[in-house]
Amino acid sequence: MPIFSLLKKKDFRVYIIANSVNEFAFMSRLTAIGWLSYEISNSPTFVGLVAAVSGLSMSALSIFGGVLADKFSKPKVMFVSKLGESIFILTIALLLQFDNLNKSNLLILMFLNGVMAAPYIPSRMGFIKELVGGKSLLSGNAVDFGFMTLVGSFTPAIAGIIIERFSIQLSLYLAFIAYCIHNILILSLRNKGTVYQNNNKLKIFESIGFILRLHIVQYLLFTMLAVAVLVWNMETLSPVFAKDIFKLGASGFGILLSLGCLGAAIASFSIASFNNININKLLTVSILCAGAFIVIFSFVNNYILGMILYGVIFAFGASSENALSTLIQNSVPDSMRGRVISLQALTWGFSGFAGLLGGYLSEIYGIRIVILISGIVILLISPIVKPISTNSKRMQIM
Fold this sequence. Notes:
82% of the residues lie in helices and 0% in strands.
């Protein structure tokens, strides 16, 4: 099985452990900030706004983050960017501890957090191919995503209990400690990254222009944007339907997020366990099923059934994300991998804007209508997968 052969590689194991610790920090922070945003505002719009400001800075700087990932050793870029994130999360915790946190400084700090995420994402994702090679990239992405979401399957539940029984800031302090552990592990890989010598030949915008002229990249980015805005937006708005539809507290909200991650973990490990998966069929089925289950989710009142469906939606979302990440990394030369991943990160940043719009529309029309429309749109755009399949075969990237 590919998963076991990959885990025999020491550097890849260290990377997986580091990224799993980072995911513990990220999900602790996500649960705490999501709940905090709704607690201090009681506004779905503000919940979306917090996500949007972080997404804005990440999107605005994602291309430059990709250039850094291509120009320097990726583990070193990961270390510096994650150090910055940890400082901003610690600042939020301290402001909350001493009753000095308000909406404005929360928005500013989350904006700065997005700035640090811009170089981290293309560096982390691009480093996988350097560790496992192009032929094993789908399995490597799936193992990475599987362990991330496996950690995410229990972290929000733990964070929710901590928030409910102790405090929000304690969850943020734990996130800070986990970020520090991540950085210690990544330091051991600081000399393992590849630095490409020909990156000075193309200027930033010339190289991005070259990438965007590739038809397969155009189709992939459109699909990634749809998945980010319509599927992962469910995570942004989860505090709203957890509280307003399912009547859950902080611990119930954490369990909801955990089940989403568990579904994603099961899907990712399943992909990593098989050889020669048809990546185009995987992408097609994943997008269609994600849209269908989002539509069904919009009609559910029972929180147990809702939690199960939430996990199923995330399973198909993870499957599509693994396929898309593999296709887009293999669509360009290795020396441009960071830049093409930065375009993928840019689409994730738009999920924050979708959260803002979704939160605003939820206040007017209700959260159910927003979820229903998201599912229908996903189903309507699913035919875009056919030209992706055609172009991927033509480029022989399979």
